Amino acid sequence: MQMYDLINKKKNKEVLTKEEIEFIVNGYTKGSIPDYQMSAFLMAVCLNKMNHEETAHFTMAMANSGDILDLSKVHGVKVDKHSTGGVGDKTSLVLSPMVAALGIPVAKMSGRGLGHTGGTVDKLESFPGFSTEISSEQFIENINKIKLAIVGQTANLAPADKKIYALRDVTATVDNISLIASSIMSKKIASGSDVIVLDVKTGSGAFMKKYEDALALAKEMVEIGTRAGKTTYALITDMNQPLGRAIGNAIEVKEAIETLSGNGPKDLLEVSLTLASYMVLGAGKAKTFEEAKKILQGTIESKSALDKMAEFIRAQGGDSEFVYNPELLKTASICYDVKAPCDGYVKEILTDEIGMASLVLGGGRVTKDSKIDLSVGIIIHKKLGDKVTKNEPLATLYANDDDKRKEAKKRIIGAYVISKEEVERPPYIYSIVT
Ligand code: URA
């Protein structure tokens, strides 16, 4: 088989076989196919597309390029959730203990990554002593014992995706639904769970700005997951404003704990409960969505989800006292209110800009070696549709550096569009793909 012929085939809009796709992915990962040939192939895919079958083969070839987490020793149906990412997205911290409190094993492999805030792993490190660097034996033992464990992503998880994604980034070949879906799903499939619930975000703070693109991505990922024998659901949820009110690391953990204590923001609770309900349905612990949601709500009312969070933090070396006293979590030294410039209603929030303000404060990583400040962040006081009066706080910044605080303030002011007319609030959830 020659890579030249396979590039030509895709250029001529032909369909590639499983063996041909495996040849491409394995050859590129090993280094026998050079960057220039892989770039040409990826561009041909962007222009001429891959069908569902080719996309599924591409995904499996990437998933099989490294370690596949073996969860066969975990008792019961293992569930996992993945988000395409958004500002203030902390649903994993809320739903994982709720689902585990129902006796359903939640086996999560989470990354750190680049972004406006750290990933779930970074956020959890706000608990002194907490570590996701646990052995695979400890990981399995914790899941069997307390039904929840989170481990850091191994370097050898879908290495083909890592290499291909880096190439796509510099060859203008990121924005193809097949390539995005296979990239995300290769890592999820390699993570070993039986049920995958996907949160595909759409709006001004999302990777997929347009609903139609988010829907196409959701459909493709569900197709891949189903072909791989996984029960897969995808929810399309709103990201035209931050989820909840907190953006940062320790500050998001605090909000997650408040939500598990029954005092969280409505949007965060609703999105978390809905995602969790599909995890419960997938695990076969409820017959209907309504039943699943009701028993999950029960874990908040009984405080069993909060206790589960404490048990999980303790099992991974963290101080669980912080779960019951979240005010102990570290907050930055400067607390500053960003005030509304005029009267009116919040018409639009440029959510990416709010994310950038968090990044500027030091809450996220610009490069993979950047150090995160877990104590900085933003609390949003005004959300879409809210009435504002001049000089009322739009947001509060928590900073450790006054220059960064000034830059973040500028970005927050620029992110708010205020109109004289009343504004309708967007829904939390748009649709579900099963
Ligand atoms: N996230 C991924 O993991 N892969 C993509 O291709 C895009 C977003």
TrEMBL record:
GO function term, MF aspect, one: deoxyuridine phosphorylase activity
SUPFAM superfamilies: Nucleoside phosphorylase/phosphoribosyltransferase catalytic domain (SSF52418), Nucleoside phosphorylase/phosphoribosyltransferase N-terminal domain (SSF47648), Pyrimidine nucleoside phosphorylase C-terminal domain (SSF54680)
Its EC number(s): 2.4.2.2
Catalytic activity: uridine + phosphate = alpha-D-ribose 1-phosphate + uracil; thymidine + phosphate = 2-deoxy-alpha-D-ribose 1-phosphate + thymine; 2'-deoxyuridine + phosphate = 2-deoxy-alpha-D-ribose 1-phosphate + uracil
InterPro entries xrefs: Glycosyl_Trfase_fam3, Glycosyl_Trfase_fam3_N_dom, Glycosyl_Trfase_fam3_N_dom_sf, Nuc_phospho_transferase, PYNP-like_C_sf, PYNP_C, Pyrmidine_PPas_bac/euk, Pyrmidine_PPase_CS
Enzyme class, broadest EC rank: transferase
Domain spans labelled Pyrimidine nucleoside phosphorylase C-terminal: 345-419
Annotated keywords: Glycosyltransferase, Transferase
GO biological process per UniProt: pyrimidine nucleobase metabolic process; pyrimidine nucleoside metabolic process
Entry's Gene Ontology cellular component terms: cytosol
Organism domain of life: Bacteria
Family: Belongs to the thymidine/pyrimidine-nucleoside phosphorylase family.
Cited PANTHER family: THYMIDINE PHOSPHORYLASE
Known function: Catalyzes phosphorolysis of the pyrimidine nucleosides uridine, thymidine and 2'-deoxyuridine with the formation of the corresponding pyrimidine base and ribose-1-phosphate.
Subunit structure: Homodimer.
Protein known as: Pyrimidine-nucleoside phosphorylase
Organism name: Herbinix luporum
